[in-house]
Amino acid sequence: MEYARLGEHTRCVRAGERLDRTVGGVTTPIHTAAAYMAAPDVDGAYRYPRYNNIPTQLAPAEKLAALEGAEAAIVLASGMAAISSSLLAVLGAGDHLVLQADLYGGTHRFLLAELTRLGIGYTCVPDADAASLEAAVTEKTRAVYIETPSNPLLRIVDLEAVAAMARRRGLVSIIDNTFASPINQRPLDFDFDIVVHSGTKYLNGHSDLNCGAVATSRALMAAVRERAVNFGQTLNTYDCYLLERGMKTLALRMAKHNDNAMAVARFLAGRKGVAVVHYPGLATHPGHETAKRQMRGFGGMLSFELDCAPQAARTFMDRLELALEAVSLGGVETLACFPAVTSHAKMTREARLAMGVSDTLVRFSAGCEDAADIIADLGQALDAAGIA
Ligand SMILES: Cc1ncc(COP(=O)(O)O)c(C=O)c1O
Question: What class of enzyme is it (predicted)?
Answer without folding.
Answer: transferase
